[in-house]
Amino acid sequence: MSEINSPLIHLKDISKVFLTDEIETHALSGINLDINEGEFLSISGPSGCGKSTLLSILGLLDSPSAGSYSLAGREVASLNNNERSRIRNLDVGFIFQSFNLIGDLTVYENVELPLVYRGLKASERKTRVLEALEKVQMSHRQSHYPHQLSGGQQQRVAVARALGGTPRILLADEPTGNLDSKNGGKVMEMLQELNKEGATICMVTHDERYNDMASRIVHLFDGKVVDETVAAVAQA
Amino acid sequence: MSFTNDLKVGMRQFGRNPGSMIMAIMAFSLGLGLVGLMLTLVFGVVKGHPENIDFDEIYVLQWDESTRHLWKSGGQFGFIRPKDFRDIDERQEVFENFAFMRNHTFNVVIDKYAERFEGSFVSHDLFDTLGVKPHLGSFFQKGDDEPDRLKKAVISYDIWKNHFESRETIIGQSFNINGQAATIIGVAPEGFDFPSRNDVWMNDTTDYINMSRIDGNGLFVLATLKEGQTLASALAPMNTIAKSMSEEYPETNTGYIAFEITPLSENFIGEDFPRMVYILVACSLMVLLIACTNVANLTLSRATTRVKELAIRASLGGKRQRLVFQMLVEGLAVAFFGGIGGLIIAIWTSKMIWAFVLSASYANPPRWMSMDVDLTTIGYLALITLVASIIASIVPALRASRTDVNEILKDNSRGASSLKMGVFSKILVLAQLSVSCGLLIATTAMVNGAKEAAVFEPPYDPSEIMTARFDFPESYFPGEQRGEAIRRLQELMELNPNLEGVGFSTSVDMLFNWDSRWALRGREAATREDYIQARNEIVSDNYFELLDIPILYGRGFEAMDRGENAEKVCVINEQLAKRLWPDDIQDAIGQQIRDVYSDTIPWSTIIGIVPDTKMAGPGANKTDEQLGGVYRPLSSANDQPSLTVFAKTGGNPTAQADQIRAILHNEDESFALYRIKTVASAVKESQFGVIFFRNIFGMFGAAAFLLASIGVYGVMDFSIRQKFQEYSIRQALGAGRQTIFKHVFKMSSWQIILGVVIGSAIGYGILGLMTQNQMVSPSANPAIFIIPILLIVGVSIAALYAPARYVVNANLADTLRGE
């Protein structure tokens, strides 16, 4: 349970070192970052600056080599696998560049999957899945398989899957990277809308156009936070 | 040219993937090796025949067994009796040569001691019928088989070489053979031992003219067709002869109305052995199928890493069939080395198995038989190798060459995931699980069956009892003269201070007894076949005492039962007593029974009952064992051509045998003692057939299990890795390790269950085919299904665990980014 006025995510001196052929690569060094509830944060920077690594650590897909990571007031950097799975399921929603839908499952089943892992009843799952699909305007495609959808539609399903579990934070890794500008724009509009409705979003993107949709932009370079900008939209 | 290039590329694959290639070659070697082994059995034994005899042109004539129910007199398994042979020979016009032979053993006195050889009495034209020319001297002439003619003998090349130092002067010399003088007239060509392991062939001078129609042993009749005749055209006139004889001699020939004429090539080896061999051939092909699926999986794994290479080739103008051909050539290169490995395995295993066959006295194969890897075997193996290489490569090649070139070339990250092999992988797993499960069931059944068959628990220690056999020379006529000799030998052996407890029996190796039909006085039956069937053994009066067989009721045989004029008595075992007197077996005492197969055997009074003994021998089926049996005293043995002598060994069977041989030699120099062994070793040897097939099935089962274990692991690993991305997504969405493990096992459980079900059906089918066979009786114990199923399930779970563990330990962030 987060305390009043305390950030949803608090990173302190987070670093990540990869060891390849006995060569240490510092992907992240001394990252200090807070993300508040309801915030739309964009992480930007050149390729290889550590954006995706940071997002993976935020999503508990990876562990930091050092530092402290608190999510909703709970230290999560050194949890075991099962606890991490549980937090991912309850508190984090993922949107990936390559959608990462499961090809053998229908749209409905894909969106339902995290709710199944949460152990919800079928009736409750159904309500949530249909709500989420409605939100991304994909209800009419619930029986389709991913390969029967366009890239933009697949990404909307991925958003619905992330939303279905009502997570504390949505993590989006280059959500428009595999989409054309029209579909990319639609997805971004959708994220912005969700943020307006109260969702906390942390997004990694290359695309300067979409940075401006965030309320705050964190610039990374060589694994370090080099700048933070409060976006115009937020100031307004 | 392109083939050479493709081959070069294929060979380069060896360098790039040595581990994968070596695995593929080993799998092929094992599968092809076992197929090669079976080919040696097919071409060397089942289809084989001596070089100098045309097995397809020589026919075997027997009474048609399908009319057996009509036969009035007892048939000797369809063999034609001597009197009938003479009649048929005089009447038939379709055969050029019409000859017979009947097996016999010959004691040939060489340097004052008799050597026993297998051989046959033959008609004068047997060698002409077989189309064989003598190596030295001559064969028999017309008239040599008349009753008043001199005894003549043809000896084998082996005897001539090993016992007579290849002396040409042997021709014309006279030797004591079976107690009578016989002249050696010829030496058979090298390797000739027809029909099997024969070393002596003598003219048959039996006076068949004055013999009754029912008497005389059944003859093995061989014939060659006259020019222009065919098997079909010969059958009708021959059956007409049978029918007319049936009408002319109703007392003996009623029901004998048709002949069965089969080529020697079919008749020689019988039906059971080839059936069993063809079951084994099918099993070896199943093992090869598992090997092919292993190789297919390895090819598939390589194909996934080569999708990009193939896409580049396609973008440069390579047609799909060209790409498929290239992968087939690569597969052929692997199969070539696998074929060589298989050939080595086939040579090695066939030598090993043939050495085992030759060491077993019960096998006794003809000398021309072998399990050599000859050119025919190599040719077929090469063809099978080619087919196997295509089977193993074609599907991966077709699938790998069908990918979307554009998609692959524009997306660097898609290499491994672009090849969708889900259904094919599942089929591979299913095929491996079911085939190996089926073979394991057959193997377990054979191993259990062999174990059950070897169960022989007599009241005595079989390793302490020596058994040996001797034949009466021709000069010891059946009847009083032979009975006198038996009594004399018995007394001499009993009086010999160096012999401790010697007895006699008609049982072969103290294990096997013949069947008889028995009449019970007061209970008449309509036909001979309706009389009660039971085993028949003639034993000396000290038999039960020496072998620690207790007398349950009444008494055993005593000295007073020895005399020719003593009251005819018998002892029965408990099994038979229960069949005939189920209310109270003691009622048997005092009842009279008689062997109905011979009118000369008088009624015998039952004087005692002994416990159940395995009179049908170890490994007999339950029905056979339940028949029970009758023991008659040695005074009934005066018509027996051979007897078994047994003795308590005191740890040294040879010493006892020497004493017995000396006594026999003193009686007559033409006596020879043979089949000298302990009962324990006889039991072991008698299991030759079961052990032979058990060993081969054992090899198949072990190979199938090994290949399937590796293969199932490989396929499961490949299948799970194909779903690597999916499992990572599931974990990202909150699935814990246990959930992933559960999902992996659940996903594959239907394959395991279905594999086990199909495998059980395959196993059941193989068992069904095997039980039709008289040669082996696989065990019917439920464990033969349970053990293989547990093994297969265990291996499958182990095969799933390792890749599942790999999946849950993977770096999620990298996987989800497609790195």
TrEMBL record, chain A:
Q: Which UniProt keywords apply?
A: ATP-binding, Nucleotide-binding, Transport
**Got a GO cellular component term for this one?**
membrane protein complex
Q: Where is the ABC transporter domain?
A: 9-236
Task: Extract the PROSITE patterns matched here.
Answer: ABC_TRANSPORTER_1 (PS00211), ABC_TRANSPORTER_2 (PS50893)
| One Pfam family linked to the record | ABC_tran
GO MF terms on file?
A: ATP binding; ATP hydrolysis activity; transmembrane transporter activity
InterPro entries linked: AAA+_ATPase, ABC_transporter-like_ATP-bd, ABC_transporter-like_CS, ABC_transpr_LolD-like, MacB-like_ATP-bd, P-loop_NTPase
Q: Which top-level group of life is the source organism from?
A: Bacteria
Is Membrane among this UniProt entry's keywords? no
The similarity comment for this entry is: Belongs to the ABC transporter superfamily. Macrolide exporter (TC 3.A.1.122) family.
**Can you say what this protein is called?**
ABC transporter ATP-binding protein
Automatic annotation (TrEMBL), chain B:
An example Gene Ontology cellular component term from the record?
Answer: plasma membrane
Q: What is its main location?
A: membrane
Residue span(s) of domain ABC3 transporter permease C-terminal: 284-403, 699-811
Locations listed in the record: Cell membrane
Describe the location of the MacB-like periplasmic core domain by residue ranges.
22-236, 434-662
Give membrane topology per the record.
Multi-pass membrane protein
Per UniProt, the keywords (alphabetical) are: Cell membrane, Membrane, Transmembrane, Transmembrane helix
> Does Transmembrane show up as a keyword for this record?
yes
Query: Domain of life of the organism in this record?
Result: Bacteria
Keyword hit for Transmembrane: yes
One Gene Ontology molecular-function label: transmembrane transporter activity
Transmembrane residue ranges: 21-46, 276-300, 328-357, 377-398, 419-442, 696-716, 752-771, 783-802
* InterPro entries, alphabetized: ABC3_permease_C, MacB_PCD, Macrolide_Exporter_MacB
What family classification does the UniProt entry report for this protein?
Answer: Belongs to the ABC-4 integral membrane protein family.
Q: What is this protein called?
A: ABC transporter permease
